[in-house]
Amino acid sequence: MGLAGGTAPSLRIDGVSKSYVSGKLALDQVRFQARSGEFVVLLGPSGSGKSTLIRLIAGIETLDSGEIAFDGKTVAGGGKHLPPEERDLAMVFQDYALWPHMKAVENVAFALRRLKMGASERRRKALEMLDRVGLATHAEQYPNDLSGGEQQRVALARALVAKPGLLLFDEPLSNLDADLRERLRVEIASLTRECGSTAVYITHDQSEAFALADKIGVLHAGKLVQYSTPEALYTAPETPFVARFTGLAGELPGCIESWIGDETVVVRVGDTRIKARAGNLDRNKPSANVHVLIRTAAATLTPATVDDHQRATNELSGTVCDVAFRGRGYDHVIEVANGHRLVGVFGPDRLDRGSEVKLSLDPVGCFAFGDVDAGVTTTPLVADRSLASLSMSTS
Length: 395
Ligand SMILES: Nc1ncnc2c1ncn2[C@@H]1O[C@H](COP(=O)(O)OP(=O)(O)OP(=O)(O)O)[C@@H](O)[C@H]1O
Description:
- By secondary structure, the protein is of the alpha+beta class.
- It has helices at 50-58, 104-110, 119-132, 148-161, 178-195, 206-212, 230-235, 240-245, and strands at residues 11-19, 25-34, 39-43, 65-70, 73-77, 80-81, 89-92, 166-170, 198-203, 215-220, 223-228, 250-260, 264-269, 272-278, 289-294, 299-303, 315-325, 330-335, 341-347, 356-361, 366-369.
- The protein has 8 helices and 21 strands.
- It has a 6-stranded mixed beta sheet with strand order 7-8-9-3-10-11, with helices on both faces. Strands 2-1-4-5-6 form a 5-stranded antiparallel beta sheet, covered by helices on one side.
- α3 (119-132) packs across α4 (148-161).
- The two termini are 39 Å apart.
- It binds adenosine-5'-triphosphate (ATP).
- Adenosine-5'-triphosphate (ATP) binds at residues 20, 22, 24, 26, 44, 46-52, 204.
């Protein structure tokens, strides 16, 4: 059975704000567009407004101001609010949300109830869809007799069976263990793309976001702080928050020594110089003290040699503090100048704790930011191993 259904709508979110009765401003002037068939991931920490935004798109919540349009037609805003059942969408929830009194096949067939087809046709399509998600043999079981991963597959089949124009995913993998997450993530990606639907997927997991997205929107305290391709987000984060939330080895304080053009600075850090992309800096507004934020993938590790006292630009010396086996190689924690640490520094060989090393930093993965938040740490908020292998040559 081919999955491609009707036409997938483009999606426009325009200046959308939402506050709750508590007075809490959950979304503040959020604006982005998705093309027909695009897979958008909204990434942000807990409380950043992800669920609120996806619920507004679904029509489960009403917005305060702004507009949501599918294919240029307003579904919410300006006094209009189309109910969820009139939006040609399906949603996959974190907690599966299956009907406990219905068998798997009945849960899936239920999504076809509004279409003009007989019960046997609905059942046939539901069985086909369960087969597509690998659950043909579980069709007659009730949700309570299925594992979490199986229940989420039923929920995925239910979302896909009516071939909706828009698919919404509310952290669908967060209740599953690591191995299952990875397998189901791949299935979600391939089935959604085969279906041709426009998709909006929310998560706080950056590796999931990078693996799935055509576009990633990063939410921070109700604001969409960056909306771009995964490659652009990784190589050109616009704020320290975005850089930190998408995986850093660490941050080193320094001061600007010179500019190269308008986009690159040379920062003096201890006894070395680091060439870095000028994050939020403006060469016309001097900002002497900055932090260099360093991607894990930007750091290449080699054992120190006797002539290493001559430091080239973007080379640091350090000491291995910790080493962890990661299958394909090893992640190291390296202490560099003034006790600052870089974590998740990948190398094919184990370098023992206490050994002296040389770090070469690719300028493409180094970002100089002024005005970084107070209380800046050298430990990234997120240091995801799976991103350590991302190439820095995507810019
Ligand atoms: N029903 C509600 N009533 C009052 N405040 C709410 C309600 N729902 C969410 N909020 C608040 O709005 C803000 C955004 O919440 P939201 O659930 O959208 O964030 P989130 O990024 O999805 O977080 P999480 O990942 O923890 O679900 C939070 O500060 C939250 O406390």
